[in-house]
Amino acid sequence: MDAVDLAGWLSLLQSPPAVIVIGSGNDPEKMRECFLSGVLDYITEPVSETKLRDALERAVKHIKSSDACSEYRLAVKEYFAKIAESENNPTFMKTLEELISANEGNVVTVQSAAAYFGFNKDYFGRLFRQNTGMTFGEFYKRFRMMYAEKLLSTGRYKVHEVGEMLGFATADYFTAEFRKRTGRRPSELRKMQK
């Protein structure tokens, strides 16, 4: 089977694998077809250890990113399912869930949330507290820590990787926030999964 056909077939799977193709020559059209078919990397022969290692490192990052994306969507659904029982404005909460879902990999601020809703920051803050009983900052911190727990409990991510995924400047800052919110260190949760 041709690499382009195989990559195209694999891309149809629910969770497509990271595909690295090793080609016998430098054929730009073949490379283009492979990338359009979903190939992650294309290495031309002769294959050096450095090229292969770099391609594998990119594949690992891609796989972790895909896993984290699934974990993020699941965390959003679980978090909003928990708070749906006590909320009194389903339209507001649905819009909020859409905002959080659309911002994977980004830190959502009260300013960006207010802009998403089309309100000024002060009005949004009052409306948010009225609908949830907490500030947007508290709400979002709770979500981020729940998501962090989910990522750490998989055992696939190091503490600093989770901190980076959540937008923390340093692993120490993430650890301090995690400990303040959950009462334990992220490394403790990670060790429990090994």
The share of residues in helices is 55-70%
Q: Major sheet: size, sense and barrel closure?
A: 2 strands, parallel
Distance between the termini: 39 Å
Shape: elongated
The CATH class assignment of the largest domain is Mainly Alpha
Low-pLDDT runs: none
The fourth-level CATH homologous superfamily of the largest domain is: Homeodomain-like
CATH architecture of the largest domain: Orthogonal Bundle
Radius of gyration: 21 Å
Description:
This protein has 194 residues and is mainly alpha-helical. It folds into two domains: 3-61, 3-Layer(aba) Sandwich (Rossmann fold), CATH 3.40.50.2300; 67-193, Homeodomain-like (Arc Repressor Mutant, subunit A, Orthogonal Bundle). It has ten helices and two strands. It has helices at 3-11, 28-36, 49-84, 90-102, 110-117, 121-132, 136-154, 159-165, 171-182, 186-193; strands at 20-23, 41-44. A two-stranded parallel ribbon has the order 1-2. Helix 1 packs parallel to helix 2 (28-36) and helix 3 crosses helix 7 (136-154). The protein is elongated, with a radius of gyration of 21 Å. 15% of the residues are buried. The model has no long low-confidence stretch (mean pLDDT 84).
Which helices and strands occur, and which strands form pairs?
Blueprint: H1 3-11, E1 20-23, H2 28-36, E2 41-44, H3 49-84, H4 90-102, H5 110-117, H6 121-132, H7 136-154, H8 159-165, H9 171-182, H10 186-193
Parallel strand pairs: 1-2
Helix pairs in contact: 1-2, 3-4, 3-7, 5-6, 7-9, 7-10, 8-9
Nutshell version of this structure?
With 194 residues, this protein is mainly α. The protein has helices spanning 3-11, 28-36, 49-84, 90-102, 110-117, 121-132, 136-154, 159-165, 171-182, 186-193; strands at residues 20-23, 41-44. α1 runs parallel beside α2 (28-36) and α7 (136-154) packs parallel to α10 (186-193).
